[in-house]
Amino acid sequence: MTAGGMPRRSLIGVTGELFASTVPDGTCEALDDGATILRGFARGQEAALLAEVRAIAASAPFRHLITPGGHRMSVAMTNCGALGWVSDARGYRYESRDPLSGRPWPAMPATFRELARAAARRAGYPPFEPEACLVNRYEPGARLSLHQDRDEEDTTAPIVSVSLGLPATFLWGGLARSDRVRRMRLDSGDVVVWGGRSRHVFHGIAPLADGFHALAGRCRINLTFRRCRRPVPTTSR
């Protein structure tokens, strides 16, 4: 909802028509045990977040990674933070440096870190300190097939996923690839948080429909925050 109580709206579709969302901002929509959609949680921050994305991409450009099987991913991506996710013939993994430049990934902006912490807290998780932010750019037709996030050592921390720009169809399955898949719309400003029993649920994004968003243009940007390494235990003296 807007401040005046009107339904929020997104610019979607090839015709550029306006369609009202059926779910008001501020709604916490349960997906599964440990998984929640925070509707409109990043509403009002989109312009600032997208400006940070442009600054990150100026230092570490978007690129289409190659899977270990030799396939080119349709989603373009880059990273910021202490670690970045990469893929090539050697496999999926996290690296502290950008393979293209050999330099450390751009630092994670404070606005990103604060948003991830606040979303995790709102979804009921204890203090969350992300080490990596995967920045994904979807153009019309790009998709992300069903997968599990299993490249992190620390699976006790949740994953926080922020949608910006064009709306997308989020695919949410189960712990087995053969489980029933639910489809739900994610609008710009929506945030999905999952962990606990849902940490390894299969999920993905259906092919992105063409359209135009006032801030992002003909694309969707996704920010995915993760903690990758196990926390170092503290010892008392």
Report on this model:
With 237 residues, this protein is mainly β. The chain has a single domain (27-226), classed as Jelly Rolls (Sandwich), CATH 2.60.120. The protein has helices spanning 46-59, 110-122; strands at 9-11, 18-20, 28-32, 35-38, 76-81, 84-88, 91-95, 132-138, 144-147, 159-165, 168-172, 182-186, 191-194, 203-205, 220-226. A hairpin with a 2-residue loop joins β6 and β7. It is globular and about 45 Å long. The model is unreliable at 1-20 (pLDDT under 50).
Quick structural gist:
The strands form four sheets. A seven-stranded antiparallel sheet has the order 3-4-13-10-15-8-5, with helices on one face. Strands 9-14-11-12 form a four-stranded antiparallel sheet, with no helix packed on it.
Portion in strands: 25-35%
Terminal CA distance reads: 52 Å
Number of domains: 1
Spatial extent as radius of gyration: 17 Å
Mean pLDDT over the full residue set: 89
How many β-strand stretches? 15
Secondary structure category? mainly beta
Shape: globular
Q: Give a quick account of the main beta sheet: strands, pairing sense, barrel closure.
A: 7 strands, antiparallel
Question: Approximately how much helix is present in the residues?
Answer: 10-25%
The CATH superfamily name is Alpha-ketoglutarate-dependent dioxygenase AlkB-like
Question: Could you say what the CATH architecture is?
Answer: Sandwich
Topology as a string of helices (H) and strands (E): EEEEHEEEHEEEEEEEE
CATH class: Mainly Beta
What CATH calls the topology is Jelly Rolls
Low-confidence stretches: 1-20
Strand order of the largest sheet: 3-4-13-10-15-8-5
Helix count equals: 2
